[in-house]
Prior knowledge:
The chain is an all-alpha fold. It has 2 domains: 19-110, no CATH class; 111-145. Helix content is 57%, strand content 0%. It has helices spanning 19-27, 37-51, 66-73, 83-93, 97-103, 113-144. Helix 1 (19-27) packs antiparallel against helix 5 (97-103) and helix 2 packs across helix 4 (83-93). It starts with 18 loop residues before the first helix and ends with a helix.
Amino acid sequence: xxxxxxxxxxxxxxxxxxxxxxxxxxxxxxxxxxxxxxxxxxxxxxxxxxxxxxxxxxxxxxxxxxxxxxxxxxxxxxxxxxxxxxxxxxxxxxxxxxxxxxxxxxxxxxxxxxxxxxxxxxxxxxxxxxxxxxxxxxxxxxxxx
Length: 145
């Protein structure tokens, strides 16, 4: 039986203000090389509307503006996107790095579909090894009579 790992595996001194790292990850998203700020705002608003997510809580009717996006990305700014808005941004920018930055202080790690398949494969191989051992043990017991 495997020993259960604690949910949170903190570093000696975790930093729970993850927003500077989230902002940095958003600024470094590869999609910026092909999308302008205006295109990101338009795509965020379209996806948010389709999904029923308010991008902002201000007087813009929940729609993202370039001004608000700039504030969310600015290193020293206090304004941060809601979790729903962050997920929309991640989808538009095609990155999971900001979500990774958000959960890292909890000792958690976000993986994409390819890594998830690799993890499932590794788990299946481990289960197979355990079953093979059990089969060999049972076969040995039967031989001994």
